[in-house]
Amino acid sequence: MGSNKKEIDKRRTFGIISHPDAGKTTLTEKLLYFAGAIQQAGEVKARKAERYAKSDWMAIEKERGISVTTSVMKFNYSDYEINLLDTPGHQDFSEDTYRVLTAVDSALMVIDSAKGVEPQTEKLMAVCRMRNTPIITFINKLDREGLVPLDILGDIENKLQVECTPLSWPIGMGKRFKGVYNLYKQELCLFQPGRNGNSQAGILVSDLADPRLDELLGSQADELRADIELLRAAAAPFEREQFLKGNQTPVFFGSAINTFGVQELLDALVEMAPPPGPRATATREVSPYEEAFSGFTFKIQANMNPAHRDRIAFVRICSGKFTRGMKAVHHRTGKDMTFANATIFMANERENVAEAYPGDIIGIHNHGTIKIGDTFSEKEPLKFCGIPSFAPEFFKKVILKNPLKMKHLQKGLTQLAEEGVVQVFKPFHINSYILGAVGILQFDITMERLKSEYGVDAVYQSIEYNVARWVECADTKKMADFERKNGNNMAWDSEGSRAFLTTSEWQLGYCMEQWPEIVFRKTREFNEA
Ligand code: G4P
Predict the structure, then answer these.
(1) Contact call for residues 388 and 98 (beta carbons, < 8 A)
(2) What is the pLDDT along the chain (529 residues), one digit of tens a residue?
(3) How far is the CA of 255 from the centre of ligand 1 (A)?
(4) Ligand 1 centroid vs 43 CA: distance in angstroms?
(5) How far apart are CA 262 and CA 34, in angstroms?
(6) Whose CA is nearest to atom 6 of ligand 1?
(7) Ligand 1 atom 31: residue of nearest CA
(8) How many Å lie between the centroid of ligand 1 and the Cα of residue 523?
(9) Counting C-beta atoms within 10 Å of the first and last residue's C-beta, which end of the chain has fewer, N or C?
(10) Which residue CA neighbors atom 26 of ligand 1 most closely?
């Protein structure tokens, strides 16, 4: 056991979470630039633009100037191998966004210093909470006037229920922004606007009483001293254990666009964030150090090229070693699958991967055989837990314009549901399809793809549902009773599980009171049916 230990321990797999416009793309770019993975700033944005141009059904992305798809990027930094998973930053949420977070070992949260915690960050953080994902926080845009740093920390603690422990502290902001004091290294980093790419040399100032501080910062030296004194009394000291449990977040300040505080952040990330850890399966916990290969699919992406119907399944490796040409059992089908061809997504190119280790994400081309939540394992069959489907919050009924296209519609919806693009419900008593989504943009994407990939011309009709829950009961007679009484609100989901759809949380609450034996679930595991 453990021949892959060296490789595993140097891997860091993390996702970036933020509200749109907080600076996620800019920061990603600067991280890649620092690591030498891209040659010039602007490549990530340029790549996004190029992707728009290449993909047809992604017209929506282009139109709205947002990124719908999730990218995976791998790069090296010092002795570490980093896998960075981008979560789409648009306002409209999709389940994809949530599921990406099931494949990471830690997350980097970017907050705009002028805005504090924004709604999307709250939602994403709620997902991180489900798995106690450790979070590192970067407060961005200190070159602009923003909120008082202590207020931002208070906001994070209140809204996100995580204790903040600042490891750097800003000296002024906006026009008065002088830099940060790194509490961790007891080092002063001076801000020089517009610097691109070079690391900011730190000046060692272990004693804050050092008169050099006054020379360098003028009147702001005393402000810094007062702030640090306050922090020492008020802020909790960094405890790695608490961070790893997701109870505490180390906080850094900087300005991504000015490449300030970025290297410090990257250094903290590789030093503090955990390497791939054990993962729960339905039968036992799997250690990354086990020799046998295992992994799970957290995302399916249809090929950008509409001429080819193939799809890429994104698989997170959980144990063992992946080698090109190896065989593993596809747990859901029970069949052996040969991985003749897997892709690894480097920052600036896609490479055919020869070997990969736990923490790495590989892309496997397939024609629809792989679904979200599918597990691959070399030894015993395993089913990884915690790849959730979330109860949709928005609903629409699909009305087919040309009834002869029913078969195409069925096929399209089945495949889009398997990809996790949208959830599909078939009411018990009506012969139609109801679509459910976590973010309304999912509806536009579904319609666009139904049309371009399956030749289906359909429209949406509003429907009065606003709430859905998966329902189950150990007592089959009770379940049958419930179904009889609530038949008009019952539907099958695409995997054959029973769902209860209703108009409001109030109605749901009322129904739950009436039927205490029935379990109403807000999430369900993919492929558990
Ligand atoms: P996102 O991916 O989180 O949506 O954010 P993105 O990086 O695209 O940044 C959003 C806006 O914030 C961009 O401005 C970007 O230049 C700006 N920004 C990022 N980091 C900083 C920072 O440290 N300080 C300041 N002052 N601004 C920052 P934009 O005008 O929307 O786009 P662009 O024209 O600059 O590309």
Answers:
(1) yes
(2) 568 999 999 999 999 998 888 998 889 888 888 887 766 555 555 555 544 433 333 444 444 443 434 478 888 998 999 999 887 655 556 777 788 899 999 999 999 999 999 888 888 888 888 889 999 999 999 999 999 999 999 999 999 999 999 999 999 999 999 999 999 888 888 888 765 545 556 787 888 889 989 998 999 999 999 999 999 888 889 999 999 999 999 999 999 999 899 988 999 999 999 999 999 998 999 999 999 999 999 988 775 555 566 678 899 999 999 999 999 999 989 999 999 888 777 665 666 788 999 999 998 988 878 888 899 999 888 888 877 788 899 999 999 998 889 999 999 999 888 888 899 999 999 889 999 998 888 898 899 889 988 999 999 999 999 999 999 999 999 999 999 999 999 999 998 999 999 999 999 999 999 999 999 998 887 665 4
(3) 10
(4) 15
(5) 8
(6) 23
(7) 21
(8) 34
(9) N
(10) 141
Provide the token pair at 416.
């889009």
Tokens of 330: 């596809």
Tokens for 382, please give them: 């395993």
Ligand 1: distance of its center to the CA of 520 in Å? Answer: 42
Tokens of 183: 């509490």
Q: Tell me which residue has its CA closest to atom 10 in ligand 1.
A: 21
The domains found in the chain, sorted by start residue, are 15-68+105-272 (3.40.50.300), 279-377 (3.40.50.300), 391-525 (3.30.70.3280)
Ligand 1: which atom is nearest the Cα of residue 255?
A: 23
Determine the residue of 24, 257, 259 to mutate for testing ligand 1's pocket, defined as the one with the most ligand atoms within 8 A of the Cβ atom.
Answer: 257
Q: What span, in angstroms and rounded, lies between the C-alpha atoms of 440 and 431? A: 23
Ligand 1 binding pocket (C-beta < 6 A) is 18, 20-26, 89, 140-141, 143-144, 255-258
* 305, burial (CB in 10 Å: exposed 0-12, middle 13-18, buried 19+): exposed
Q: Which atom of ligand 1 is nearest to the CA of 28?
A: 7
Packed helices 441-454 and 406-419: angle between N→C axes, nearest 10 degrees: 130
* The two three-digit tokens of residue 169, written as one number: 């502290």
Provide the token pair at 238: 């960094």
Cα(128) to ligand 1 centroid in Å equals 24
Q: Bridge partners of 169?
A: 181
